[in-house]
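User: Could you check the structure of this?
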Amino acid sequence: MRPKDHPDLRFDVIPKLFDAHFKVFVTNLVHVEEQLHLLPRQFCRMYTTRPLANQLQQYLKLRKANIKEQDFKVVEEGQPFPLVLSDGKRLEAMLCSGSHLGHSLILLIRRPQDGRLLYCYSAVRLDNLGRLLGNSIFNSWIVKGTEHLYLNLTSVNEQFEPVDFDRMAITIEEYGNQNNGVEVCLVLPLFGYEEMLWKLAHTQLNGHIRLGDVLKDSYKCLSSDLERFQGFHCLGQWLYVCSSLEHSQQGNQQENVVFLNIEHLKWSPPPTRMHLRQLCSLMRPQHIQGIVHFHSNGIVPPIPTYLKRFKANYSPQKEGLTLSRVQVEPQEKVASKGHYRALLNRKAFEYLNDLDSTDSD
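Assistant: Sure, the predicted structure tokens are below.
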């Protein structure tokens, strides 16, 4: 998507047509496989961090895309960098990580003149908010709040269910035991679930998770620490995790495995109600806007009241008054609104004296 006042800026959407003025910010790769079903001939300049750039470049080379290192503007995570727009205006931006592996970023853009934060964009869950709050530069940028906060509202109306990864590990093991002790196979999208795998590797599944080759190579772009995965500790295989790309190539040729639906694990990349609350309370925005994904019909859920309460200009009385006006507005008043006014028969000329009112239709 792109902000209305700065059309040069593109958030997590890689254009199919090249434009030298576009500045594409890549904060996550969750929808990349779907978005790049058709590859562009030439890529616009993409701003992101080194781990995400490596992941994306590796995937695009696997797809035989025309991708070069020069297509990326790699920036330091948590460090400001300048932006010069096509109209000559200057802004400052910063990409900060909200995950243990650095693959879920939050984007901040501000005016350098007054330091006012214009945009805060967050499309995926930030499971390691403490990492953000430990950054003194991040704290100095958000101290005055932000004008526009862009949020992924996919799960805004779903009940929050905390995820216990130790319990998840037990569930996976029991699922295999219920099926005669065979290996459990989990098919995941190539991007978006790395944080879940990292956390599972810190449970009793340590040393019992085997990654498919494509998924392993992608994971290596984020972390060189693979000792918790099977292959380094020969403790037996309980869980085999492969990408949907690998699974489509292999088909169902694997024997002695039982497939586990990802929905049973109750973890997904979009932010939960809790994550949305945390971010809104932290940013104190003037305006909250839902993120419109590239593949959507442009319709996003309305902003719920539990998030509106965190707006800097929120007033319960004003909110209630607005709703009541909508409900009780007279029908005549509603009917009178429009682009046209009724034409009345009048004399060709009307003369006014000094005592007459000068107000007219």
